[in-house]
Write a structure and sequence with these properties.
Helix content is 56%, strand content 16%. By secondary structure, it is an alpha+beta fold.
Length: 387
């Protein structure tokens, strides 16, 4: 999440039932919010909040949707990209928690214990004698730290020896491994502490958890690509809007569009006109809430709501380039070409096929779609992910 301490964007946060109950207990007032798709939802609006707070809310399943309404993407490019990466990472961490708990409860040590101790079976409702998992883990903090090191050491060793990674990338991957592992539910640590040692299946469980962490690191690597692609798609849509509005604002169809798009002296008056008409973009992240079902967890959508009627232009642009061979660009080459090329609109959408390949390698299901609502002039660009 960059180096900034706070997220500074006009955020609308739609809460799940669990999230609303938690905030009401903290005396935070729940509001009725008008969303980008013209619907009304209940939640909170914030101009500034910490990344840690938003991540904790997402991982707890308290947030159903995050929306940033009516913005000009280029003016908040870094903030939007940081928010994209934060949401992506939070979903990866949360999904790891679900999978890690399933692996643990389905492991051989737990199955053997439950078979021999039907009166004190270990399951999702298990509580230690200390009264709470937190108290139990605190009382065994040293042993827990040793287990954490035992899990992380082989992962860190593999990362350190990976010749494909630069030194700074290795540090990032090791830090990611730590964060991912720290998102494991307390029940996972309870089971690991209980059966640590020679118990049948314990080493196998450690290996399965390490493999899961490795898979999550690969998924997190896609977050950077996703943020860039979403930002460039937004810029693509916004530039189409600006060109249309410029013809109206300057009352002529004969314009130097590159000058309109690149020179703030000509661009900003057009943006101001679009703002008055509520024709700026809305970014929306639809999350999976607290659900742990196989079909919904790890699933989220990023949607761009465009109040101007760009449906045909946006759809045709995406369809024409979706299957293009973008494999010759790596991310760095693509980004440099994007900055140096006068053909930015095509490159922004051209990246889709490259991104789809990156998702396939990381085991992420990705789909993109452009639709127009039946009863309004909105164009809706939706990017769906299943981690």
């Amino acid at each position: 999440m960059g180096k900034k301490n706070n997220i500074q964007l006009p955020l609308k946060i739609v809460l799940t039932e669990e999230g609303a109950a938690a905030l009401i207990q903290q005396n935070i007032k729940i509001q009725r919010l008008k969303m980008g798709d013209k619907s009304e939802e209940y939640g909170v609006s914030m101009e500034v909040l910490t990344p840690a707070f938003l991540q904790q809310m997402i991982m707890a399943g308290y947030i159903a949707k995050v929306e940033v309404t009516g913005i000009e993407p280029l003016s908040v490019r870094a903030e939007i990209m940081d928010l994209c990466k934060l949401v992506f990472h939070s979903i990866v961490y949360r999904n790891f928690g679900f999978v890690a708990q399933e692996l643990t409860l389905g492991s051989e040590p737990v199955k053997n214990w439950n078979h021999l101790n039907p009166q004190s079976m270990i399951d999702e409702r298990t509580l230690p004698k200390e009264g709470s998992m937190q108290q139990f883990l605190k009382s065994r903090a040293d042993e827990c730290a040793a287990l954490r090191r035992e899990l992380l050491t082989p992962i860190s060793g593999r990362i350190t020896k990976d010749e494909k990674l630069q030194p700074d990338e290795k540090n990032v991957h090791i830090l990611l491994a730590e964060k991912i592992l720290d998102s494991a539910p307390p029940l996972v640590w309870f089971v690991l502490l209980k059966f640590a040692g020679p118990a049948n299946g314990f080493r196998k469980l450690l290996g399965e958890l390490r493999n899961c962490v490795d898979g999550c690191i690969k998924k997190c690597a896609v977050a950077e690509y996703a943020a860039l692609m979403i930002m460039e798609l937004a810029a693509n849509i916004e530039n189409i809007n600006i060109q249309k509005e410029a013809r109206v604002y300057y009352k002529t169809s004969v314009l130097n569009m590159q000058k309109i798009l690149q020179d703030p002296q000509f661009r900003m008056p057009v943006i101001a006109s679009m703002r008055k008409k509520n024709n700026l973009l809305t970014f929306s992240w639809k999350l999976g809430g607290a659900s742990q079902s196989i079909g919904t967890r790890g699933k989220f959508q990023v949607t761009l709501f465009d109040s101007d009627a760009n449906y045909k232009e946006t759809r045709d642009s995406m369809e024409a380039t979706r299957s293009a061979d973008a494999g010759r660009f790596n991310l760095s080459e693509y980004y440099k070409k994007l900055q140096n090329s006068g053909n930015e609109l095509e490159l922004g959408v051209y990246y889709l096929s490259y991104f789809n390949e990156a998702c396939e390698k990381a085991g992420i299901k990705f789909e993109s779609m452009v639709n127009q609502t039946q009863y309004s002039d909105q164009t809706i660009t939706t990017l769906s992910f299943v981690l």
